[in-house]
Amino acid sequence: MNxxxxxxxxxxxxxxxxxxVEGHNVTVIDxxxxxxxxxxxxxxxxxxxGLGFDEDVLAEAGITECDSFxxxxxLDNTNxxxxxxxxxxxxxxxxxxxxxxxxxxxxxxxxxxxYVCGTTLVAENLLDKIKSGHGHHLSALGNIEIVEFKANRDxxxxxxxxxxxxxQCRIVAISRGKTNxxxxxxxxxxxxxxxxxxxxxxAYTKLERYMED
Length: 213
Fold this sequence. Notes:
Blueprint: E1 2-6, H1 10-21, E2 25-30, E3 46-49, H2 55-60, E4 68-71, H3 76-89, E5 94-99, H4 105-110, E6 114-117, H5 123-132, E7 140-141, E8 144-150, H6 160-164, E9 169-176, E10 179-181, E11 194-200, H7 204-207
Parallel strand pairs: 1-2, 1-4, 2-3, 4-5, 5-6
Antiparallel strand pairs: 7-8, 8-11, 9-10, 9-11
Helix pairs in contact: 1-5
């Protein structure tokens, strides 16, 4: 599959890396050439410097042969324009856009855009959308993010209050096997749990230590 990813921030670089590892042909577009450093030395795709809604830049990126297109910058207007150009001008059938500000969700819906909402996204959710065309939405309220992750060994046997302490997060739901429940402060986590939590954007990296890679 030929995929174009617009935006090489944390989300875009992770998404591009996941797609590349799976053997897809990936081209990453970003207006800042230094951003491509996030891709690391193992990335074997193509990088193009420029604006993701510029037709000449998109042509250079190979959009005429593009199967899927993901606009995942941290600017809603850029993502919206890039997605619309890819879909309406170049006829890309599968276009996914990142929605940073949930206030604009209605605009994305009215335009019929497939999107993921959230400020710190789990790249796997975008990958699922690119591969299958659907997926669940993460969301955000200002600088508070709603994230879903699989608990790793560092989280195993730790009580909810231990995880929350000092991170500025709140664990709101846990899925364990066929059981889903709302935990209390003393509920222990288990490695492999699917956890839904709210967390401040600036505290996200602290929560990452409990997430399975």
